[in-house]
C-alpha cells in the first residue's frame, strides 16, 4: 500500500498547485500529527483546513472555497469530513464507510460541491490517494453505446457487489487525478478498460 499523503507534504502539493512560491515552514503537533504553519511574523496556524484555506486566500483563488453561501458550506462540510473521517479512519470498515458515503454523494455530481472544482476535491483526493492506489480499477465499456463507462474499483477483499458500489468515487477520483496540477509526483491510479459483450448478435 502506498504511504498516505499527510500534513506538510499535502500542504506543499497544494502550494505548488496554487502557484505559490513555497518556502513555508511546516511542522506537526501532537499524536495525530496536526499540521502547523510556522510563521516568523506572528503566531503559527494550526490544522489542515485552516492552513489550506489560508494558502487559497494567499494565492487569491477564493473560488476554490466556493462562490455562493451554499457552495462555501458544502466545501466546509467536505473539508471537515476529510479531517474527521478520512484522516481518522484506519480499518477496512472505515474505508468502506468512507467510500460508501462519497459514492452516494457523488451519484449526481461531478465534484464534491456540485459542478465546481474546489479545495474539498483537492484535499479529499490527497486524503484518498493511498486508498485508491491499493485498488485496481477496471472500466467496462458497452460496445455500441457511446459514453457508457462503468468503473469498478477492485480490491482483493471486496465482493463483486461491493465493487459495483463505488463507481461514482472511481469516476470522480480519475477525473480529479487528471485535473491540471493536482496529482504532481503522486502515482497515477490506472483505470483498466474492458469491453462488456452481450449475447445479442
TrEMBL record:
PROSITE patterns per the UniProt record, alphabetical: GST_CTER
Gene Ontology molecular function, alphabetical: translation elongation factor activity
Domain GST C-terminal: 54-200
Keywords: Elongation factor, Membrane, Protein biosynthesis, Transmembrane, Transmembrane helix
Transmembrane region(s): 110-127, 133-152
KW Protein biosynthesis (keyword) present: yes
The keyword Acetylation appears for this protein: no
Listed GO biological process terms: positive regulation of DNA damage response, signal transduction by p53 class mediator
Gene3D superfamilies in alphabetical order: 1.20.1050.10, 3.40.30.90
GO cellular component: aminoacyl-tRNA synthetase multienzyme complex; cytoplasm; nucleus
Protein name from the UniProt record: Eukaryotic translation elongation factor 1 epsilon-1
Protein's organism: Lonchura striata
Taxonomic path: Eukaryota, Metazoa, Chordata, Craniata, Vertebrata
Amino acid at each position: 500500500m502506498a504511504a498516505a499523503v499527510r500534513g506538510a507534504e499535502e500542504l506543499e502539493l497544494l502550494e505548488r498547485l496554487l502557484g505559490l512560491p513555497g518556502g513555508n515552514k511546516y511542522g506537526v503537533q501532537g499524536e495525530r500529527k496536526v499540521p502547523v504553519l510556522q510563521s516568523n511574523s506572528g503566531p503559527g496556524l494550526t490544522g489542515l483546513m485552516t492552513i489550506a484555506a489560508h494558502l487559497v486566500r494567499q494565492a487569491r483563488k477564493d473560488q476554490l472555497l466556493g462562490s455562493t453561501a451554499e457552495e462555501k458550506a458544502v466545501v466546509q462540510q467536505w473539508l471537515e469530513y476529510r479531517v474527521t473521517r478520512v484522516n481518522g479512519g484506519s480499518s477496512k470498515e472505515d474505508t468502506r464507510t468512507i467510500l460508501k458515503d462519497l459514492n452516494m454523494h457523488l451519484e449526481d455530481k461531478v465534484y464534491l460541491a456540485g459542478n465546481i472544482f474546489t479545495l474539498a476535491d483537492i484535499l479529499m483526493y490527497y486524503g484518498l490517494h493511498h486508498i485508491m492506489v491499493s485498488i485496481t480499477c477496471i472500466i467496462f465499456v458497452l460496445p455500441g453505446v457511446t459514453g457508457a463507462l462503468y468503473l469498478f474499483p477492485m480490491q482483493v477483499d471486496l465482493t463483486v457487489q461491493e465493487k459495483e458500489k463505488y463507481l461514482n468515487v472511481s469516476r470522480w477520483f480519475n477525473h480529479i487525478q487528471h485535473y491540471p496540477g493536482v496529482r504532481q509526483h503522486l502515482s497515477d491510479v490506472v483505470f483498466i478498460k474492458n469491453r462488456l459483450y452481450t449475447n445479442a448478435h
